[in-house]
Structure formats: structure tokens, C-alpha cells
Amino acid sequence: MSTTELAWFKSSYSGSSGDSCVEVATTPATVHVRDSKVEQSPELAVSPASWTSFVSYAAQD
Questions:
Q1: pLDDT tens for residues 2-42?
Q2: Cα dist. 4→30, 31, 42, 48 in Å?
Q3: Structure pTM?
Q4: For residues 46 and 58, which has the higher predicted lDDT (pLDDT)?
Q5: Dist CA 35 CA 7 (whole Å)
Q6: Which helix (H) or strand (E) holds 45?
Q7: Which superkingdom is the protein from (predicted)?
Q8: HSE on the CB side for 50, CA within 13 Å?
Q9: Burial profile 7-34: b = 16 or more Cβ within 10 angstroms, e = fewer
Q10: 24 CB-near residues (< 8 Å, 6+ apart)
């Protein structure tokens, strides 16, 4: 699956003003992350376990 075919959604960790948006798309094997305000934004792809660990850590702050 190419990253253009993914279903992207705004992360709940993004700001509500709309100008600081992190988008996430998931597949069974990978979580894709990108910055929506940067055209041709590089994407980060991590395992679901790594993403879970990351958001769990971020939620502690």
C-alpha cells in the first residue's frame, strides 16, 4: 500500500486551532505520522507497539 492510499486523520494530540496538525494513518503492521502543514512532508513510519509506547509516554506530560 502506498502512503497516498492511506486514510489519514488528525491526531487527538494536535492543537485545536488547526495550525499545528499531526496526521496519523494506520495499517496492521505500521503507524504512519506526518505534519499536515508542510507540503510534501516526510513521513515517519513506526510499529504499532512503538506508537503505543510513544503516545503513552506523551500522555504522562
A1: 556 889 888 766 666 666 688 889 999 999 998 877 777 78
A2: 14, 14, 12, 19
A3: 0.72
A4: 46
A5: 15
A6: strand 44-46
A7: Bacteria
A8: 10
A9: ebeeeeebeeeeeeebbbbeeeebbbbb
A10: 8, 9, 10, 11, 31, 32, 33
